[in-house]
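Inverse folding, one chain.
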C-alpha cells in the first residue's frame, strides 16, 4: 500500500491568480499534489492541502 506525506499551506484569499499559480507550480515541481482547498470560518485565508509519496517510496 502506498504511503504519503502531507503538507498544509495557507495563503490570503485575495492573492492574484498568477501568484497562486506560481505557488502551485513550484510545489507541483517538488512532487506535491493539491488535494483540497478550504477557507475556514470566513477568515479570508485559504488552507491548501497537499500530498506526495513518501521519500522512501520514491
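Residues assigned per position:
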Amino acid at each position: 500500500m502506498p504511503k504519503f506525506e502531507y503538507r498544509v499551506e495557507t495563503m490570503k484569499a485575495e492573492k492574484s491568480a498568477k501568484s497562486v499559480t506560481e505557488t502551485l507550480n513550484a510545489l507541483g515541481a517538488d512532487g506535491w499534489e493539491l488535494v483540497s482547498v478550504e477557507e475556514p470560518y470566513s477568515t479570508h485565508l485559504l488552507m491548501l492541502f497537499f500530498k506526495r509519496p513518501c521519500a522512501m517510496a520514491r
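The chain is about 20% helix and 40% strand. The chain has one domain: 4-57.
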